[in-house]
Amino acid sequence: HKPRSYFKKGRAFMMLWTEPTASSGSERTIYYKIRRFVVIRQKSTHCLCLPINTYSGQGITKRGIYVQDHAAVVSAGGEGQLIEREQELTKSSLYIKTEDPSISIDSASLIKFGKVYTVEYNLKVKNIGRILPASISHLESYVVDTLKLSSTIESSRT
C-alpha cells in the first residue's frame, strides 16, 4: 500500500483491476487484468485517474475508439512509434519518466481522457513513474477540454 502523498497529479502506476462481465442468470463472472493509470486529482480517501491503454497492442488503430479523446504516452527521451492513424491524434504526446527499470512504456500506449476511474488509496499498486512536469499542463488542459470542465484540475482536500 502506498501513502496518500504518493498519489499526486501525474503519478503513473499499475494495479490488478477487476470488472464484472456480462452475467447470465444469477451467476456473475469477474474479469481481472493489470491496468495502468495516471492520477489527475487527489481526494481524501481516493484519487481520480485516467486509464493508459494499448488496446491489446492496437493503439490508435483499434476500430471504434474516439481518437480525439486520446494522447500518446511516450517514455521520456524516446519517441512514440505510433502507426497508421498517428496523424489523427489531436493532442500532443505526454512524456513519462519511468522509475522502475523493469518497466517500459509500450509504443501503443494511449491515455484515454474520456473515462475517469476512482482508485482507493488502500489498494496495492506498483509504481511506473511520473508524467514529466513539461507535460502536466497538457494533461490538465486535455482533461478539462475532453470532459468539458469549466476550470483546471487542482488538488483539493475534499
TrEMBL record:
Superkingdom of the source species: Eukaryota
Q: Which InterPro entries match?
A: DUF6590 (IPR046497)
Entry's Pfam families? Answer: DUF6590
Residue limits of the DUF6590 domain?
4-140
Q: Which residues form a coiled coil?
A: none
Protein name in UniProt: DUF6590 domain-containing protein
Q: Which organism is this entry from?
A: Massariosphaeria phaeospora
